[in-house]
Write a structure and sequence with these properties.
6 helices; 7-stranded parallel β-sheet; 32% helix; 175 residues; alpha/beta; single chain; Alpha/beta knot
Length: 175
């Protein structure tokens, strides 16, 4: 008895199935690791942004531009928003633009499970906290929705790149 025939798609097949050119920043879906800790996580998120048609919003800390340049494995222009040095002020300004939903990825009593997170229907910013301390208390007031990623293992949370990628795929409607 043999299993189903599996045909692996070639890179050429994939190119024909996907959009003909990379997206331009349409400012609809942003992932915001506003308190970044590790430069490799930013590179991973940048790659995920390209995959789902999202943009990355990061503070312009001295090491961040270099981390993004090294993390841009696609070697083409990417969609990056610079938040300045005060992430909470940036969030306040983004919400003041109107019609923006701010989703925090955090363990909280009010959290919904990732599986219950609907795809973004309007401008949405997904906020990621610090790898050790999460989203600071002063930024929690800016969140419209809090989502958590359920875990079975012994760790308390995933790293920023993995958590952000899962949330981006869910918000983009691709997962």
């Amino acid at each position: 008895m043999s299993g189903p025939q599996v045909r692996v798609r070639s890179p050429k097949d994939l190119r024909h199935q996907r959009r003909r050119r990379s997206h331009s920043c349409w400012d609809h879906l942003l992932i915001a690791p506003l308190w970044p800790m590790h430069n490799v996580n930013l590179g991973t998120l940048l790659r995920t942004c390209d995959a789902v048609g999202a943009c990355l919003a990061v503070p312009k800390l001295p090491w961040v531009p270099d981390a993004l340049a090294r993390g841009n494995t696609l070697k083409r222009r990417t969609c990056v928003h610079w938040t300045g040095h005060d992430p909470v002020r940036w969030l306040i300004d983004q919400k003041a633009r109107g019609e923006t939903t701010v989703v925090g990825v955090e363990l909280a009593d009010e959290s919904i499970r990732l599986a219950d997170l609907p795809a973004a229907r309007g401008r949405t910013i997904a906020v990621l906290g610090h790898e050790r301390t999460g989203i600071p208390a002063e930024a929690l007031d800016q969140l419209d929705l809090v989502v958590e990623i359920p875990m079975i293992g012994t760790g308390a949370s995933l790293n920023v790149a993995v958590a952000g990628s899962l949330v981006l795929y869910r918000l983009s409607g691709l997962l």
